[in-house]
Amino acid sequence: MAKKEDYKLKNEKFLEEIEKEEGIIKHRTGVMYKVIKKGDSDRSPNIRSVVSVHYKGSLINGREFDNSWKRNCPEAFRLSDLVDGWKIALQQMHIGDRFMIYIPYEYGYGTRTVGQIPAYSTLIFEVELLGIA
């Protein structure tokens, strides 16, 4: 139990440090993001949109758990089917934008372990919004 609590605290501390970085935008939910590249579109997805994205997901220790760029194949997702952190962050994006997104565990997979992602994990995603359907 102490191990899970330590991991949870480590993730909370990580987010406290990220929040201090220049360019970080914090949504009222605690989900944070930083604009890496601004697209030239004014179109943003809504909760009913299907989005086409390239993305890389990692944990606070740098361990990558998914990467569409490495597969050289963008992914399409129905926004409503994604973790809450993605729902929140992607609705802030416009086509062509590339963001670093920091998702607290409450808006990711919560207190459960999913695959290689431990419970209480902050999810870090680099996401490029390629299109909206």
Describe the structure.
The protein has 133 residues and is of the alpha+beta class. The protein has a single domain, classed as Roll (Chitinase A, domain 3). It has 3 helices and 7 strands. It has helices spanning 2-19, 68-71, 84-90; strands at 25-26, 32-37, 50-58, 64-67, 75-78, 98-103, 123-132. Strands 1, 2, 3, 4, 5, 6 and 7 form a 7-stranded antiparallel sheet that branches.
What would a concise description of this structure say?
The chain has 133 residues and is of the alpha+beta class.
Keywords:
7-stranded antiparallel β-sheet, globular, 7 strands
The SSE string, one letter per element, is: HEEEEHEHEE
Q: Domain count, please report it.
A: 1
Record field, number of beta strands: 7
Chain-averaged pLDDT: 96
Query: If helices are DSSP runs of H or I spanning 4 or more residues, what is the number of helices?
Result: 3
Largest sheet: number of strands, sense, barrel closure: 7 strands, antiparallel
How much of the sequence lies in strands comes to 25-35%
User: CATH top level?
Assistant: Alpha Beta
Task: Measure the end-to-end span.
Answer: 44 Å
CATH architectural arrangement = Roll
Question: What is the 3D form?
Answer: globular
* CATH topology type: Chitinase A, domain 3
User: Runs with pLDDT <50, length 5+?
Assistant: none
Instruction: Give the class from helix and strand content and strand pairing.
Output: alpha+beta
